[in-house]
């Protein structure tokens, strides 16, 4: 009799699990969105608990009301510090964009690349900031939740937060929106193995552009922080040195191998790092950026004699979006190549490892949402793999 009850319970449990796995995608997405919204306050409170954990276990005896007031003020102070940090990041982002637009007026790049850069920067100027409100440990390297959604679209009177909206930090890709709720949205990270943006390698001036971006941000910040210098001469020397460094990074840009990049960790498992894996990198066909090149030697094929021979991919190259995956606009930074696997007999493309230029994803707190490039959200984008 006992065994029969146990078997019946197992059958009921199996049926319930089967029903849960059979929920259609749209109700499942709404359920996840509701769960994230419910857990968002707890996520914020968990951050505030860091302050309480640092308090002594056995404080001296004092008035209970005074102790409660002290704890309340400590929590308020922690919240204010978090908000100041968020506003500082927002200020640096806006300063970075303004500096980029100013520098673009003096660029020596070809008109086509200048136009692409201006279009990309124009899209970035339309970005809206979003604070990370929840990140599940079970899908740490796959997705996170931000505090913007359809309510913000209604407030802005235009569709800014949509499925396939790129998510960036500065000019570096973080991920893409794959679900939009009322007050929260889910970001699919590029460290997820199911997201495969189309990228190409660049070498030269634009390879140094990420360093140029950082120097420009530092210049803009130091220009407003006279308190960091002992006198005006010291400030001028440091700013002049940074200006010289920025000028040295200017030069010719070579657009080389094209391929795809994807996360090295599977969904639902916490990543041990932010390493990305690249596949399919070659330059077998000519395009607007240059002639085709030999896979092994990098020698141009059917090109003018003034085109130099160079490796089509190597460690240190930067990977930028091509704009051909229907999600990310061309020209956004994705990663820097850290290792290129040697070719084996019969290979017709390179494989590689790369590090995201957006930095450490484990420390993200504020991101920026760009408007979608116009790809139909009703169809599955090319850069998604299930």
What does this structure look like?
The chain is an alpha+beta fold. The protein has 2 domains: 74-205 and 251-369, no CATH class; 206-250. It contains 7 helices and 12 strands. The protein has helices at 2-21, 25-53, 64-104, 111-125, 150-156, 209-222, 232-248; strands at 128-134, 143-146, 166-169, 172-180, 185-189, 198-204, 253-263, 276-282, 318-321, 333-340, 350-356, 366-369. Strands 1-2-5-4-3-12 form a 6-stranded antiparallel β-barrel. Strands 6-7-8-11-10-9 form a 6-stranded antiparallel β-barrel. Strand 1 (128-134) and strand 2 form a beta hairpin. It is globular and about 75 Å long.
**SSE string, helices as H and strands as E:** HHHHEEHEEEEHHEEEEEE
How many domains would you count in the coordinates? 2
Low-pLDDT ranges: 1-5, 106-110
Structural class comes to alpha+beta
In terms of DSSP E residues, the strand content is 15-25%
Largest sheet: 6 strands, antiparallel, barrel
Mean pLDDT, nearest integer? 78
Shape: globular
- Please work out how many helical segments DSSP would assign: 7
Number of strands: 12
* Rg estimate, integer Å: 25 Å
The portion of residues assigned to helices is: 25-40%
Span between termini: 45 Å
């Amino acid at each position: 009799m006992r065994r029969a009850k146990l078997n019946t319970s197992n059958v009921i449990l199996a049926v319930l699990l089967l029903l849960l796995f059979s929920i259609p995608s749209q109700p499942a997405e709404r359920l996840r969105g509701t769960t994230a919204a419910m857990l968002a306050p707890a996520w914020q409170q968990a951050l505030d608990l860091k302050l309480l954990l640092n308090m002594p276990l056995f404080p001296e005896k004092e008035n209970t009301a005074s102790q409660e007031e002290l704890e309340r003020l400590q929590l308020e102070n922690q919240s204010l510090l978090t908000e100041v940090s968020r506003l500082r990041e927002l200020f640096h982002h806006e300063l970075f964009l303004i500096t980029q637009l100013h520098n673009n007026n003096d660029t020596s790049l070809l008109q086509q690349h200048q136009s692409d850069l201006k279009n990309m920067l124009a899209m970035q100027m339309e970005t809206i900031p979003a604070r990370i409100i929840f990140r599940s440990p079970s899908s740490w390297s796959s997705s996170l939740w931000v505090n913007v959604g359809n309510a913000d679209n209604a407030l802005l009177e235009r569709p800014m937060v949509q499925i396939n909206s790129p998510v960036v930090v500065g000019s570096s890709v973080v991920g893409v929106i794959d679900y939009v709720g009322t007050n929260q949205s889910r970001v699919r990270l590029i460290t997820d193995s199911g997201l495969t943006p189309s990228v190409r390698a660049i070498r030269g001036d634009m390879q140094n552009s990420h360093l140029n971006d950082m120097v420009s941000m530092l210049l803009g910040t130091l220009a407003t922080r006279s308190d960091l210098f002992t006198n005006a001469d010291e400030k001028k020397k440091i700013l002049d040195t940074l200006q010289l460094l920025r000028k040295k990074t200017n030069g010719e840009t070579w657009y080389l191998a094209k391929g795809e990049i994807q996360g090295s960790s599977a969904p639902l498992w916490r990543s041990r790092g932010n390493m990305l894996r690249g596949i399919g990198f070659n330059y077998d066909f000519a395009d607007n950026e240059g002639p085709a090149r030999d896979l092994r030697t990098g020698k141009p094929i059917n090109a003018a004699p003034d085109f130099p021979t160079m490796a089509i991919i190597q460690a240190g190259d930067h990977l930028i979006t091509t704009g051909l995956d229907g999600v990310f606009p061309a020209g956004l930074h994705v990663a820097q190549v850290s290792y290129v696997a040697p070719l084996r007999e019969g290979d017709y493309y390179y494989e590689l490892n790369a590090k995201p230029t957006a930095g450490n994803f484990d420390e993200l707190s504020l991101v920026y949402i760009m408007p979608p490039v116009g790809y139909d959200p009703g169809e599955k984008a090319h850069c998604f793999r299930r």
